[in-house]
Input
Amino acid sequence: MLRSFVILLLFASVTSSSQTYYVDGINGQNSNNGLSLLTPWKTIQKACNSATPGSTVLIRGGIYYETINVGVSGLENQEILFTSFPGESAIIDGADANDTALLRISDHGYLIFADLEFRNLYTNNAKGISIESVAQPVDRIVLKHVSVHHIGWTSNTTALPVYGNNALGIVARGYNSLTNLTIDGCEIYNNTLGYSEAVSLNGNINVFTISNSIIHDNSNIGIDVAGNYGVCANPANDHARNGTIRGNTCYRNISPGAIAAGIYVDGGQSVIIERNQSYENGWGIEVGCEQNGETHGIIVKNNIIFNNRNSGLSVGGYNVSTTGVVTGSVFRNNTFFQNNSLANGMGEISLTKAINCVFENNLFYTSSQNVLLNAANISPQDDIYLNYNCWYTPVNNPNNIVVHWKTLTFTTFSEYKAWTQQESHSTFINPSLNNPALPAPDVCPQNVSYCINHGDPATSVPPDETDFVGNPRIINSVIDMGAEEALNSLGTTISDKPTASVWPNPFRQSVTIRCENDCTDSEISLYDIAGKVIRKNKMTSNEISINRDGIQSGMYLYKIARGSDVLASGRLIAE
Output
């Protein structure tokens, strides 16, 4: 009951019109005007054909046997909110479905769907929620506190799929431009996916967030951010990009016929994967590239990854018949604990076709195999940098480890470092975790841990970055190894900083930032997603315009500060 009320409060400022419509599957009639509890519409489809910009549609609790095709759009700052009536639960059930999607949004935008349940649709190519931009651009779709479950290409959960057997929990396809997609606080589970994914973003999708969601017990990949598949006719835009995957929990996403990752980026670009927990999947997190082209600019940081069947982290294109390669990506400050439960020699990291990738400040605690990593004998595999990592095995013996490095196998940590010229500042040592035991380890280092203040001293982070649990990412000027920063020396608390108004965002030539507080005599700093300062300007008033000159396409973070006092921070997208 409380959550429904909170949803209305969250979007009250977004849906600026006071108009409210009502849907009641038992007492409603579509011939009604829908304007009161006494004159509600009967179907959600009627609401999705009739709601006006800025309005709210309250759906009375109960089961609605509908497939819904949205026929309306909101406007900027006048989104349409569709949500369950406070204290009740509206369920869309596919038992009598006449379509392959329970909710289909095609070429419509400025829409919010919140506090709704989608379930029980079994047919090949079934979709719980389908979002597409086909004939025109689509902007601002929000899914908030939505659950999607029991969607499948078959209802037989033990059936082995063949190519062409597909189902998806939530899918977004950018044939045209699709911008500002948000999936937050959702649960996607118990879906029989065949060769598809629980949450899938593909094609020309620019600026997205998948956050605070639980994706579990699906029969293939949990979250998939893709590109290079020809969804968008312009190859330059055929990538889901400038996105954030944050604060999700992904577990038991297992394919019967392949290795399914909890989180997978395959052809995406400029994506931040942070503060997620991924366990008991095929891979924990995979950054790959199956098609011709690149997966580029992926930042994987502050995640906890444990007890996955194969490696905790898989990086690289693996298909020798394509040019697919991972480039320019960073994997730092993650904690890996006893992955590769299949004990097939994959270790904590699997590395294939990758160029210019950095692995640093990570904490690795292996399984009893004592296998650290597996770098396949495949090309290209250039400019790979591993350093400032903490490695440990349960036998606590650096002379009893295994590293598969192309055609070589090393059995001591010192030999591995010497021959590969990697890990010069890395160490093999017990990280002193709170509770290093499956099935629910507590991988926070104790105050005596070597990992504290032993990350790369040169590591800088964006102004709003926190560790896995939301604490400041750097304390005492040097970052810790692993996903959690020790707080033993922290004497103050950090509060969330307000964001400023930013327009246009994304921007092409210039962007204007207006601070919500008094920002005179302050300084604005612009950071790239690796935390490097690329521009600084003085603020003489509450508003500043920044020219695009010299700023490449991608995601950037800004911080407005007066001395040590941060006044505002947020992110920008340069198209």
